[in-house]
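Two quick folds needed for the group meeting slides. Do the first one here.
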Amino acid sequence: MSVIAFLGAGNMAAAMVGGLLKNGHAHAALRCYTESGQSARALSALTGITRAESIPALLAGADLLVVAFKPQHLATRDAALVEASSGKLIVSVMVGKTLAQLQSAFPHARAWVRAMPNTPGKIGAGVTGWCAHTTLADADRALVDSLLSPLGLALEVTEAQINDIAAISGSGPAYFFEFAAALSAAAQQIGFEPEVAKRLVTQTLLGSAQLLAQSGAAPETLRNQVTSPNGTTLAGLRKMEEARLRETVLATVRAAQARGLEIARES
């Protein structure tokens, strides 16, 4: 089984580790390291994977290095990474950092991949867009697939699309959770107890997402099926229209997209 090393141990690394473990990857074949050690220690305690004490220990015998620290840390990375990453397959989940920047940071690696997973990957229900610097060897493509497929849907895209994927599916769960929080708060405002509101909202959103996935129908078609002339749903939808919901969502996505481009320019 391939040894996978995680440089960084935050939410995204945790989601990926969780997805791998859920799909049968051995604990002993997963390692993590952070400079401070704090988040790596927490991830190790939570999942049972190995916490490496140093970068050389992290990468000794590893097949693949997942770079999962904050994008701004790439410029101040430990110099030991240059030698230790020699010959490794590099997969970065850093927002905004280009393949050219990865190649510059890890010049002796054998291949470079950018990936943009999202946190539902922790339960195997995520989506990951990815692209490679050059055409991958069959063995490396299989290794990337072994990393990403347990997380859910994996789509190979162009590098130009990676930043756009970050603004949609990468950040999308946060948009979804914010809507869930708003709907739950509204339920409480009209009289439901917090736990009842949470259960109502969670099942409503879960069932709606499953219906969308299984029916094959467009979201607008399903919306119209719920909406009766002069009914309660129509009254609510008109308020959304008055509030320019779609324009707000587009502005939200464009803001995330623009920030991704800014991060790419930062060193």
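Then this one, please, same format:
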Amino acid sequence: MIGASGERYPGGMKNRVAVSGATGRLGRLVCEVVEQHPDFELVARLRSTSRPEDGADADILVDVSRPDVSPAIVDAAISRGQQVIVGTSGWSADLLEALESRLAGTPERGVIVVPNFSLGSVLGTALARIAAPYFDAVEVVEAHHPGKVDSPSGTAVRTAELMAEARRGRPVDAPFAEQPARGELIAGIPVHSLRLAGVVAKQEVRFGGPGEVLTVTHDTHSNEAYRAGVQAALEAIADARGLTVGLDALLGLSGAAAAGDAR
């Protein structure tokens, strides 16, 4: 288990993991990754409707539940002294700010929020962030399977927020943005959501400039795309302190993308 000093697996014991939202698409994969990893033990498969005390004996809570219940689940886990990985969509900049403030009172605890566990998606967002300062027009189109309850996706929201940050306050050219058909504005960037049978996940970031269009596209064909990212988050959570947002921070991509922000 995780000791008070942050030591990983003292005495050779495995870290005990509870998964909230274990019956969903991503939840089932997370459970599988935990069970196959020699350093972790799955001790609870929780539903979004599980009692607050369920899974209390775990060292780590992985929350892949629903946007409407995720903040309360995470808050309860922090109160119990658990390390937390959040893979649930819907964690906006305001929610992340509140979570960071919450963690300030428990400096020995850590939460990793992962908008997308796909390595390709993380790289796509990093490339979009690098390109964002160089084009006046930017739009995002994201598509997911019909069972995804939130829109825009957490990945699209995070991508838009990072691109706006990279632009350093320079507004995006988004004509007629007040029209509903133009998509929802996230940090000033139009985001369009599709929910279609036959789709797992897809995101396109389109940049328009004089005489050219640049498109950064990522397609997810199966949940296998998330396996490596889930494992990376599990292996990092023992040493996490405070709030970490994005798989890019675990892979060392944050600095590379930020280097492109200075234009």
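Slide caption for protein two: The chain has two domains: 10-117+224-259, 119-222.
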